[in-house]
Design a protein that fits this description.
Pfam families: TsaE
Strand order of the largest sheet: 1-7-6-2-5-4-3
Strand content: 25-35%
Order of helices and strands: EHEHEEEHEEH
CATH architecture: 3-Layer(aba) Sandwich
CATH superfamily: P-loop containing nucleotide triphosphate hydrolases
Number of strands: 7
Shape: globular
Keywords: ATP-binding, Cytoplasm, Magnesium, Metal-binding, Nucleotide-binding, tRNA processing
CATH class: Alpha Beta
Structural class: alpha/beta
Subcellular location: Cytoplasm
CATH topology: Rossmann fold
GO biological process, one term: tRNA threonylcarbamoyladenosine modification
Main location: cytoplasm
Oligomer: single chain
C-alpha cells in the first residue's frame, strides 16, 4: 500500500506525523514493533520529521540526529520500551553492522526509526512490520513524503487505519 503527502512545507509535517503516530500507537497495542525506514537526500527532512513523529507520542522528547552516536533512544510513555532512532549514514557496508547489535532491537522492541537504511537491507527485509518513508525535495521549502508498506496488509486493524487516511492525504 502507498500513501503520498505532497507540497508540504517543513512546518506542515504534522498531518503525516499524526497519521504515522496513530499507526504506531495501534501497532504497539497489538504487540507489533514497527520499523520505519527513512530514505531521502541530505536535508530532505528525515530528522525533522522524526522529531515531529516522536513528539506526537512523547511530547517531552529532545529529538536530535544520531549521526555521530548511530542511535538515540526516547522513552515511550506508559511502556517499558523506546523509540530507537538510528542513523546508518556513516556505515559503508553491511559488515559494519555486525558488531553493533542493532538487529537485536529492530522489530523486537519499541519503534525503530532507521535513517539511511539500505546498508542494512538484508537484516531488515524479513522483519514482520516495516513502513518505508521516502522524503523528496520538491523545492527549497516543499517536500513530498511517501509511505509504503506491503506488511500492513497482514494486520487488518492497521490496514483499516491506512485505508481511512488514503482519501485524505495533504
Amino acid at each position: 500500500m502507498e500513501l503520498e503527502f505532497q507540497n508540504l512545507k517543513l512546518e506542515e509535517l504534522d498531518k503525516p506525523a499524526y497519521f504515522l503516530a496513530s499507526l504506531i500507537e495501534t501497532s504497539l497495542k497489538q504487540n507489533l514493533f514497527p520499523v520505519l525506514l527513512f530514505s531521502g537526500s541530505m536535508g530532505a527532512g528525515k530528522t525533522t520529521f522524526a522529531s515531529k513523529l516522536v513528539k506526537k507520542i512523547t511530547p517531552t522528547a529532545n529529538v536530535n540526529s544520531p549521526t555521530y552516536t548511530l542511535i538515540n533512544q526516547y522513552p515511550i510513555p506508559n511502556r517499558e520500551d523506546y523509540f530507537y532512532h538510528f542513523d546508518l549514514h556513516r556505515l559503508k557496508n553491511p559488515q559494519d553492522l555486525e558488531d553493533l547489535g542493532f538487529e537485536e532491537i529492530w522489530g523486537k522492541s519499541g519503534v525503530s526509526i532507521i535513517e539511511w537504511w539500505p546498508v542494512a537491507k538484508e537484516d531488515i527485509q524479513e522483519l514482520p512490520f516495516k513502513i518505508e518513508v521516502d522524503f523528496q525535495i520538491v523545492s527549497e521549502e516543499e517536500r513530498k513524503i511517501t509511505f509504503k508498506s506491503t506488511d500492513i496488509n497482514s494486520y487488518p486493524i492497521l490496514k483499516d487505519l491506512w485505508e481511512k487516511m488514503e482519501g485524505h492525504p495533504a
